[in-house]
Design brief:
With about 130 residues, this protein is α+β, with helices and mostly antiparallel strands. The protein contains five helices and six strands.
């Protein structure tokens, strides 16, 4: 995917838009990792959620892409996992989206790996 920005949107607002897209498809356990004060962080935010099936995971990812494009005109710079749908990653540079199945989320434990990040439950982040 190519990055195209039609409207200037802050990384925080982009994060909120991602959360909205996840909630549209009833994603589970939505968590934001605020990485802005973490040394050597690759982005400002990780937004992580869980889907219940490969179809659900795909629907969540599609919803996120649609919401972000609608609000900002931005397409992700890179995405992975659309074929196997166990872990879909969509990279918006400042915000990286992770849509997992339960097993992959537990195995990769991004929340633990990035333990220095501020963890925000989606209900707080989406206020």
């Amino acid at each position: 995917m190519k990055q195209r920005k039609n409207k200037e949107v802050s990384s925080y607002d982009l994060c909120q838009t991602v959360i909205k897209g996840m909630h549209e498809k009833k994603a589970l356990d939505v968590v934001v990792l605020d990485l802005q004060n973490v040394k050597n962080a690759v982005s400002d935010y990780f937004v992580i959620c869980t889907g219940t099936s490969d179809t659900h995971i795909s629907a969540i990812a599609d919803s996120v892409v649609e919401e972000v494009k609608k609000v900002s005109g931005t397409e992700g710079v890179h995405s992975e996992g659309m074929t196997n749908r166990e872990w879909i990653l969509i990279d918006y540079l400042d915000v990286v989206v992770h849509v997992f199945n339960r097993e992959k989320r537990a195995y990769y434990d991004l929340e633990g790996l990035w333990g220095d990040a501020v963890r925000i439950e989606a209900s707080e982040a989406h206020a």
